[in-house]
Amino acid sequence: MNHSQPAGPIGPIGPVLVSSRTIEEYRAHFVLTDAELTAGPILDCPGGASEFGAAVRAAGGSCTSVDPRYTMAADDLARIVDDEHERVVEWIARQPDRFRFDADGTWERATPWRRAADTFLADYRRDRAAGTGHYLAATLPELPFEDRRFALVVSGFLLFTYADLFDEEFHTAAVLELVRVCSGEVRLHPLNDTRGRRYPHLPALLDTLRARGVGVRLCPVRSTILPNDDRTLILTVSGA
Description:
single chain
């Protein structure tokens, strides 16, 4: 694979990616401990094609994954996941100055993401066959859950990531909705868009949250994807 420097700057990735993130990435990006994985019901929103929910349940925990794509039949979603994997690998290959590659020129997360996608798809098929409801179709900023339904909410690579697609009003409404359904902590990562730029309206959003009694903390983390995705926003729900 040719990783020569592109002639011009690479733009944002485009439509929201259905990504196949691994449990190891979730643990690193959301600073999750073994105890937190099994302490109480977790919401993963959006879940995409991540293996997180399956891994939490395999460890004895409870996790509900939410994503607009979960209306799809398993075979149709599998085709989307394959296409999206190719899209992200191609986009990353054009940016050798930003991402890390193996000695053979392969993006270092390509194989783990493919494995995670396979785990997700197998679990999604089981869920559809058994009707266990682990994967629910919904779209922020409206979720079909009662107040404080989940002890922990994690939301990765949607909010802030696609600031070119979603405006400040959407971000505020989406974060407040995640807070509404949480009784403990909401953790959001990263705080940059797909080009690595900080979300410009973050200070105003944090002021809004503080005014509503939500605790706000910026936690330093080590990203498995990009070094400058080095902070996670942790929101503590009032009374938690």
